Amino acid sequence: MLKKIDEHLEDILLVTLLSLMSLIIFVQVIMRYLMRNSLSWSEELARYLFIWSIYLAVSYAAKERKHIKIDAALYLFPKRCRPYIRIIGDIIVLCFAGFIIYTSAMLIQKIGMLGQVSAALSIPMKYVYMAPFAGFVLTFYRTAQNIWLRIAKLRKGEEMDD
């Protein structure tokens, strides 16, 4: 069970968020153009779901090792050095994720103290600002996982696939 969650967490969350967002926007269009009455909260909720999906997609990209990277520079180095350079790149991503986790936690704390709420939904804004925190906690985890797998492959003498 835990293995399935580990393998598909981002997939399930992203499909759910994007499906909800599409459904909400579809209902809003139907309400506005067929019923001549729009929902006051739909655009705001769709926007917040989109924000959450963006930050969760960062984690998904880390899991799939599909982050933007400069491969051309990697091929300037000898083949035996490339796995180590990839690990160094992952460590840099890990440090960046840690920085975002720390700064977003501070921001969530400040927003929480202010008690700010959203205009249409009246939900505490700290929940919206938790998106970068959650996304980069997952990114940190996925990148650490990648580093662990790369080191394990190096120790076994296996080739790295990316």
TrEMBL record:
GO BP terms, alphabetized: C4-dicarboxylate transport
One Pfam family in the UniProt entry: DctQ
Chain segments annotated as transmembrane: 12-33, 45-62, 83-107, 127-144
Membrane topology, record value: Multi-pass membrane protein
Locations listed in the record: Cell inner membrane
InterPro entries: DctQ, TRAP_DctQ
Domain Tripartite ATP-independent periplasmic transporters DctQ component: 21-151
Keywords: Cell inner membrane, Cell membrane, Membrane, Transmembrane, Transmembrane helix, Transport
Subcellular location, principal: membrane
MF annotations from Gene Ontology: transmembrane transporter activity
GO cellular component: a single term: plasma membrane
Family: Belongs to the TRAP transporter small permease family.
PANTHER family in alphabetical order: 2,3-DIKETO-L-GULONATE TRAP TRANSPORTER SMALL PERMEASE PROTEIN YIAM
Protein name, entry field: TRAP transporter small permease
Source organism of this protein record: Clostridium symbiosum
Highest classification ranks of the organism: Bacteria, Bacillati, Bacillota, Clostridia, Lachnospirales
